[in-house]
């Protein structure tokens, strides 16, 4: 029997369906042995176990219970309670393990008479019988569940979870589950059986929503916990009696332990009982419940924590938790996977203060717990107890939120409505194709549920399901495994009727917001603070302008395939476009901004504005940029609305507002650039942007914050000002350890102006002085004045950080006689005496007063910060904050892109609308691949008009050419720089389509050729005379004959539709087809240098002509295919086959010179270099035009006397950042930068000359090592003569 329970624990999950009945159990086990040969041992053990049990065993159990009662003096014994068994046999509490009872039964334990020995024997026999009974009961239960599985799989697949991918029922999962199969039972994995059996029990209390997340588990530790779940126990599936399935499971000791266990877990009033009650209210949420210093979860919720948050289970059971300091990180792990999290906090204890409960001790206390917040992917920040948060990364580490999405199926196409509950904004995109909607949902997975309004016809036939062609089936976005969607149907009858003055965009906003607010309100979604929110509180964004729409071409959102081929969908096989557009040092928010911009190109007016801004930053030589702060706007607004913004958050907000005002002043001298900047702010914020008004509103918000916030959080304050206004901790002149005051005051000091909480500060000051005086008298036996004069004296006062008290280790020696009676042992926080510590009544009272004053000050500071949040919210400052945040984001994005463009040599291409003089699609000058450095790339220049049929050998650059041209067109359409030379022109296109090589898609039951044809069909539906299309090697997945004919027909259709683009192919027979479009199609090829007889060389250059040699054998040999294979292929080629078949770094340590000023340095530098100097103030960025250029720079360090540093670099922005990170006098330095037109060599000469000149004139230099000699090697002599 020792092996039985172990096999049961694992074997239950591996056996197919069984027919109920112990008598026939043996036959069914034998019948199922063939598909489960690896479990023959389990089957045989189960057969033996089931055959050993009979009805006589039940009679014997009753007899044993009666006899035990007789031997125990007529008192019944609960044989499942080890405590009662121990008292009955031994008379006290002892172990009742099997080995102990066997010794007792044999009379080998002293003090036991014959009746007690008989009791031990009876208990052993009882446990043996009860183990067999429990085993058979479990076998019978498994038979019932397995039979349900067989019946379930015989039913037609009409259930929502079993429906095909073409139609989907309401409230069913929308993303196909690649782990679930409708194959016969014997083809499912044991783990799938375990999961499905949880939901087949008629008494199952677990929501069916958890089936998919459980099937998608990957970690072995998570899968092991599933074996412990019991869906009949509670909505969490947590069984308190379940034990880990380990190597010891199945032993008789384990069986006896389970047979004798009792538990009160889960009863009403217990912690587990509370969690079960709340899970019934929120079955679709993961519950985190506060328990002391931890948040705990049970059952399925605990499994999700182990799987997605990297936590460990408790003692191997389906129970897990996280410490309170890591709750946001744990929540982020869950919301990133698409889950909603219900967080419960502890309130004050409710304890009976009188009667029996008052003397019952701590166990009589009932914790009051309440729902604090439901955190969702739409608002992933946990807004609780953050006002006095001291973490510096409150905003920097915020997880990006996801929008709610509604899709409306209208006659004009799909309308996509995206709702941000954090920013309270709505973005509406009209007239979209299914492919465009699919790309948007795949790139940025929305929050569950997905709202869908079908057409009236589709709604009338809803019993057959809804056709959703826009659903993503492949994971491409930022949240690869976090797409968990269910569909919520919006009846089309609720769509608002057309009314004068109400646009279609406003109607779409109203219907989706009405549905969303009703749904979230019914679920008490406190994470979105929807209680008093109305539709009018949401700002509406339109994805495109309607003015002049008939005259201007708008670029439509990208399709999934196009976005994938251009490196926007996180495909590791394709170079990332975002990584090339922005430097690695760019903030993550700028990457998300540009990715959204490229996936959904802006209107022409917006792209032109961004182009003007980038062009200005790229070429401006004389203006440094202020430091820009790009916080997550949604989280900032959520904190302000909830009153949970901390001093650190307000400090970040000050930087945002200051940066916006400085930027407006920065562009004031360039009216056209300022207009472009304001256009971008208005487009991103949805609010009218006017420079004077925005500047004033930002200044008003700054004033409101600075009136309250401590100067310590004003980053623009100088160090001297900050030091003068520093909020100092209380001081006792070394009478009390300083760390004691720091620990009690660190949570609230330095947050607000002292004047704002003057009374609280004064109370703390007085109480700290009183405490110091009492401690000096009772613990030191002297006065503070006397002690302050002493030095190097041992402090007898010790602090207890756990109980927050100060005391002595022993009674002072200066006490004698009756004075010693004043000293007593203090009590800890639980009321127990600390027998190694001593204190006095006076110290205790003074300590209590001080702690109470600190608590009052903490509460007062918190109230002031909460009131500041309300002032900004109720005072109408939020619009200015929204616009300022978007201004910082837009400017930061444009700046970093300009820096990257200068470094890579990218340029701004011009856009145009087609005219009789400009009928070409694009004219590219010196284009090269965006992922290759310009110095290593081969540039191509060509004009594209109509269709190019491109033929070329393998590895000659066909795909690279097309991907580069498409990326250049997309970047230009969005107002960004592209890897082209100046003078390039690109027409505005309504669609940019790229179709590259593909693979099969098993989740959609599509072969590679089927997926290819689906994309081509979408292209032919949506592309026309204003479209740019690139098709690479169409027809590779089918026979050459049929592929050639199909390719010819597609080229013909593209040409007749007026599409411009490139069609690359190896199907050379297409050139022989009688197409009716040869007059509009041009033939191009990738040139190959074959002048060398030994081998050909790829040039990667585009030229006119046709290439019918694919050079497949040369390519195969180049990549290491065995020579024997190459030789055999050459032999077979003679047989005809029937046609139906960053800069340098230097360290200095010399100091010399004298006092001087920055104004004295500028004339010296300009006289030597003959260049105008550019001054970079502390913390400012250098102009973007300097990125990638050789420069020489002089640093004025923040020291007394002033010190200077001379250097040269090719990356001045990164170099200044490196110097500032040194800290100290380097952090607040001012820089003078001078461009070196002659490159790095000239910059080095200037560096040496400046070092010599400044040192000779008495400037205090931190180094003169590079001034000892002028290095003139590798430099044109004209530079030396001219300078």
UniProtKB/TrEMBL annotation:
UniProt-recorded Gene Ontology molecular function terms: ATP binding; mismatched DNA binding
Keyword terms: ATP-binding, DNA damage, DNA-binding, Nucleotide-binding, Signal
Keyword DNA-binding: yes
Gene3D superfamilies: DNA repair protein MutS, domain I, P-loop containing nucleotide triphosphate hydrolases
Pfam families: MutS_I, MutS_V
GO biological process: mismatch repair
DNA mismatch repair proteins mutS family domain ranges (all copies): 945-1134
Keyword flag Cytoplasm: no
Endpoints of the signal sequence: 1-24
Protein name: DNA mismatch repair proteins mutS family domain-containing protein
Species: Fistulifera solaris
Source organism phylogeny: Eukaryota, Sar, Stramenopiles, Ochrophyta, Bacillariophyta
């Amino acid at each position: 029997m020792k092996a039985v329970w172990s096999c049961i624990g694992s074997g239950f999950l591996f056996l197919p369906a069984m027919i109920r009945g112990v008598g026939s159990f043996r036959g069914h086990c034998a019948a199922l042995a063939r598909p489960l040969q690896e479990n023959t041992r389990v089957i045989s053990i189960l057969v033996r176990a089931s055959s050993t049990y009979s009805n006589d065993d039940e009679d014997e159990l009753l007899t044993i219970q009666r006899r035990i009662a007789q031997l125990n003096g007529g008192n019944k014994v609960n044989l499942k309670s080890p405590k009662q068994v121990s008292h009955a046999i031994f008379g006290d509490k002892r172990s009742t393990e099997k080995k102990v009872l066997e010794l007792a039964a044999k009379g080998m334990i002293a003090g036991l008479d014959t009746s007690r020995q008989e009791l031990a024997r009876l208990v052993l026999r009882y446990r043996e019988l009860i183990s067999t009974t429990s085993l058979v009961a479990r076998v019978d239960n498994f038979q019932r569940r397995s039979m349900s599985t067989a019946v379930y799989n015989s039913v037609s697949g009409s259930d929502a979870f079993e429906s095909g991918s073409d139609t989907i029922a309401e409230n069913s999962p929308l993303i196909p589950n690649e782990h679930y199969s409708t194959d016969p039972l014997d083809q499912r994995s044991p783990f799938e059986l375990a999961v499905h059996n949880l939901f087949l029990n008629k008494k199952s209390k677990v929501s069916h929503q958890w089936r998919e997340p459980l099937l998608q588990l990957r970690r072995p530790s998570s899968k092991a916990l599933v074996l412990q779940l019991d869906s009949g126990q509670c909505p969490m599936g947590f069984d308190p009696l379940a034990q880990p399935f380990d190597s010891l499971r199945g032993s008789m000791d384990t069986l006896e332990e389970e047979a004798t266990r009792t538990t009160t877990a889960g009863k009403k009033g217990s912690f587990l009982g509370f969690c079960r009650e709340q899970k019934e209210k929120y079955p679709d949420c993961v519950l985190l419940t506060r328990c002391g210093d931890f948040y705990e979860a049970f059952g399925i919720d605990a499994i999700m924590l182990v799987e997605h948050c990297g936590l460990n289970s408790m003692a191997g059971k389906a129970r897990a938790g996280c410490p309170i300091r890591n709750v946001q990180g744990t929540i982020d792990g869950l919301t990133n996977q698409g889950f909603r999290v219900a967080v419960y906090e502890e309130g004050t204890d409710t304890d009976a203060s009188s009667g029996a409960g008052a003397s019952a001790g701590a166990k009589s206390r009932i914790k009051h717990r309440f729902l604090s917040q439901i955190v969702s992917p739409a608002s992933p920040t946990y807004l609780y107890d953050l006002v006095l948060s001291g973490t510096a990364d409150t905003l920097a580490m915020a997880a990006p939120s996801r929008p709610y999405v509604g899709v409306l199926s209208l006659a004009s196409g799909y309308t996509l409505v995206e709702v941000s509950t954090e920013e309270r904004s709505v973005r509406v995109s009209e007239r979209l194709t299914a492919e465009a909607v699919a790309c948007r949902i795949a790139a940025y997975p929305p929050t569950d549920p997905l709202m869908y309004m079908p057409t009236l016809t589709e709604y009338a036939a809803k019993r057959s399901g809804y056709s959703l062609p826009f659903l993503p089936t492949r994971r491409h976005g930022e949240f690869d495994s976090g797409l968990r969607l269910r569909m919520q149907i919006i009846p089309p009858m609720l769509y608002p009727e057309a009314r004068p003055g109400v646009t279609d965009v406003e109607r779409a906003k109203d219907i989706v917001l009405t549905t969303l607010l009703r749904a979230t309100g019914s679920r008490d979604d406190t994470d979105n603070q929807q209680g008093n929110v109305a539709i009018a509180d949401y700002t509406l964004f339109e994805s495109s302008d309607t003015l002049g729409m008939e005259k201007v071409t708008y670029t439509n959102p990208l399709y999934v395939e196009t976005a994938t081929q251009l490196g926007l969908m996180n495909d590791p096989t394709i170079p990332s476009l975002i990584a090339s557009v922005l430097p690695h040092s760019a903030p993550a928010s700028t990457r998300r901004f540009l990715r959204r911009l490229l996936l959904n190109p802006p209107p022409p007016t917006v792209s032109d504005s961004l182009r003007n801004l980038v062009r200005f930053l790229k070429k401006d030589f004389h203006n440094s940029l202020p430091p820009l702060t790009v916080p997550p706007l949604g989280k900032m607004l959520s904190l302000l609305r909830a009153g949970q913004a901390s001093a650190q958050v307000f400090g970040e907000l000050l930087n945002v507002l200051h940066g916006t005002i400085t930027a407006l002043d920065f562009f004031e001298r360039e009216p056209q650039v300022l207009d472009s900047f304001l256009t971008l702010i208005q487009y991103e914020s949805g609010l009218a942007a006017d420079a004077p008004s925005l500047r004033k509103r930002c200044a008003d918000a700054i004033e409101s914050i600075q009136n309250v916030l401590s100067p310590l959080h004003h980053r623009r304050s100088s160090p001297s000002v900050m030091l003068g206004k520093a909020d100092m901790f209380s001081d006792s002149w070394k009478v009390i350890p300083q760390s004691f005051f720091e620990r009690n005051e660190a949570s609230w000091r330095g947050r607000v102006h002292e004047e704002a909480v003057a009374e609280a500060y004064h109370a703390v000051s007085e109480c700290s002085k009183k405490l110091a005086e009492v401690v000096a008298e009772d613990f030191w036996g002297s006065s503070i004045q006397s002690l302050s004069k002493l030095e190097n004296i041992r402090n007898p006062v010790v602090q207890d950080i756990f109980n927050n008290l100060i005391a002595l280790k022993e009674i002072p020696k200066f006490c004698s006689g009756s004075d010693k009676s004043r000293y007593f042992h203090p009590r800890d926080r639980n009321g127990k005496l600390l027998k190694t510590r001593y204190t006095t009544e006076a110290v205790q009272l003074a300590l209590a007063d001080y702690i109470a004053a600190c608590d009052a000050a903490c509460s007062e500071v918190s109230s002031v910060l909460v009131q500041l949040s309300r002032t900004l919210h109720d005072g109408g400052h939020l619009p200015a904050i929204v616009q300022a945040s978007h201004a910082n984001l837009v400017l930061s994005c444009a700046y970093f892109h300009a820096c990257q463009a200068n470094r890579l040599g990218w340029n701004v291409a011009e856009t145009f609308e087609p005219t009789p003089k400009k009928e070409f699609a694009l004219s590219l000058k010196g284009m090269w691949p965006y992922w290759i450095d310009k110095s290593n790339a081969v540039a191509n220049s060509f004009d594209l008009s109509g269709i190019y049929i491109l033929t070329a050998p393998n590895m000659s650059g066909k795909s690279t050419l097309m991907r580069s041209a498409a990326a250049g067109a997309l970047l230009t359409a969005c107002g960004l720089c592209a890897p082209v030379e100046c003078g390039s022109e690109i027409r505005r296109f309504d669609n940019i389509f790229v179709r590259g090589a593909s693979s099969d898609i098993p989740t959609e039951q599509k072969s590679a050729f089927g997926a290819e044809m689906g994309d081509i069909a979408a292209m032919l539906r949506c592309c026309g005379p204003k479209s740019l299309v690139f098709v690479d090697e169409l027809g590779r997945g089918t026979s050459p004959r049929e592929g050639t004919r199909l390719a010819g027909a597609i080229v013909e259709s593209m040409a007749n539709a007026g599409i411009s683009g490139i069609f690359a192919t190896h199907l050379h027979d297409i050139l022989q087809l009688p197409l009716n479009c040869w007059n509009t199609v041009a033939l191009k090829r990738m040139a190959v240098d074959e002048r060398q007889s030994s081998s050909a060389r790829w040039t990667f250059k585009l030229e006119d002509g046709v290439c019918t040699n694919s050079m497949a054998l040369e390519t195969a040999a180049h990549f290491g295919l065995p020579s024997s294979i190459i030789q055999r292929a050459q032999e077979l080629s003679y047989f005809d086959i029937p046609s139906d078949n960053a800069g340098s770094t230097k360290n200095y340590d010399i100091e010399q010179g004298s006092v001087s000023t920055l104004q004295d340095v500028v004339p010296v530098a300009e006289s030597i270099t003959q260049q105008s100097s550019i001054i970079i103030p502390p913390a400012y960025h250098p102009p973007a035009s300097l990125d990638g250029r050789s420069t020489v720079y002089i640093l004025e360090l923040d020291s007394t006397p002033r010190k200077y540093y001379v250097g040269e670099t090719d990356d001045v922005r990164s170099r200044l950042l490196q110097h500032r990170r040194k800290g100290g006098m380097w952090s607040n330095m001012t820089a003078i930068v001078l461009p070196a037109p002659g490159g790095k060599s000239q910059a080095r000469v200037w560096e040496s000359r400046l070092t010599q000149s400044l040192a000779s004139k008495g400037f205090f230099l931190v180094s003169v090592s590079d001034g000892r000699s002028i290095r003139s090697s590798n430099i044109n002599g004209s530079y030396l003569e001219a300078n």
